[in-house]
Amino acid sequence: MTARTLARLTLANPASVIYLGLVGIAVAYATGVTLFAPDPGFVWVLPAMLAFPLFMLVTLIHGTALGDGLPATWLLLAELILCVLAQSLALGTMVEASRGRLRRR
Questions:
Q1: Is 55:47 a contact under the CB 8 Å cutoff?
Q2: Which of 2, 20, 22, 74 is deepest in the core (most CB within 10 A)?
Q3: Do residues 13 and 102 touch, judged by C-beta distance below 8 A?
Q4: Average of per-residue pLDDT across 47-56
Q5: In the predicted model, what is the mean pLDDT of residues 9-23?
Q6: What burial class does residue 76 get, using C-beta atoms within 10 Å of its C-beta: 0-12 exposed, 13-18 middle, 19+ buried?
Q7: Between the CA of residue 99 and those of 62, 85, 87, 91, 102, what are the distances in Å?
């Protein structure tokens, strides 16, 4: 697979675009609540739930590898972005495979 094919499956597929749009809306909402609310609470659970299967695995790895300490915020956000992109790629691949357009060369 070329980089163009990976980008097309991850970003240009209609199902992936809808998924990334939902994640973007959830992150924008969580950011707004975090910036302007006195107590944001558990607002960042929604973006994490949209990246659930893979993000849960990464979080479990952090829980066992780092002990009781929490990882840095930038690390969690970077992992959230990478998990969302990986799931978007998987979603795009499944959609293209179901359409019969994914060919082996």
A1: no
A2: 20
A3: no
A4: 88
A5: 92
A6: middle
A7: 37, 21, 18, 12, 8
Rounded to whole angstroms, how far apart are CA atoms 23 and 51? 8
Q: Do residues 54 and 45 make contact, with C-beta atoms less than 8 angstroms apart?
A: no
Place of tokens 């939902």: 22
Distance of alpha carbon 48 from alpha carbon 53, whole angstroms:
9
Residue 42, SS3? coil
DSSP H helical ranges for 1-105: 3-7, 14-36, 45-50, 52-65, 73-99
- State mean pLDDT over 48-58: 87
**Burial status of residue 35 (CB atoms within 10 A of its CB: 0-12, 13-18, 19 or more):** exposed
Quickly list H helices, 66-105: 73-99
Written as six digits, the tokens of 37 are: 């609310």
Q: Of the candidates 54, 70, 73, 51, which has an alpha carbon nearest to the alpha carbon of residue 62?
A: 70
